[in-house]
Amino acid sequence: TIPLQTEVEDVYLKDDCFYVNFSLALKEKHPGGSSGELLTIYSIVNTLLINFPSQSRVQILIQDKPVETLAGHIDIRNPLGKRLDIVKEP
């Protein structure tokens, strides 16, 4: 659900939050839809927070700035926590 053209431009930590800065392609090339947007956002958030349990939030940035949404459905202006309810158990 992450467009192929998307680049991670920067990742840094501040307090208990990852800041992940993506290229504009994450927003402009996103296929859309509420389910697709949810999966894109939480594939990023859950991957980081499950693998780095000492951190509790992820802020998604596009070209160094927070954006309202990726595709019009989910507010990502503020840092997000894990959503394990959307993870399929093996």
Description:
The chain is of the alpha+beta class. It has one domain. Helices cover 24% and strands 23% of the residues. The chain has a 4-stranded mixed sheet. β1 (8-14) and β2 form a beta hairpin. The protein is globular, with a radius of gyration of 12 Å. It starts with 7 loop residues before the first strand and ends in a 24-residue tail after the last strand. 18% of the residues are buried. The model has no long low-confidence stretch (mean pLDDT 95). Residues 2-68 form the GerMN domain. It holds the Pfam family Germane. It comes from marine sediment metagenome. This is GerMN domain-containing protein.
Tally of DSSP helical segments = 2
- In spatial order, strands of the major sheet run 1-2-3-4
Distance between the termini: 20 Å
- What series of H and E elements makes up the topology? EEHHEE
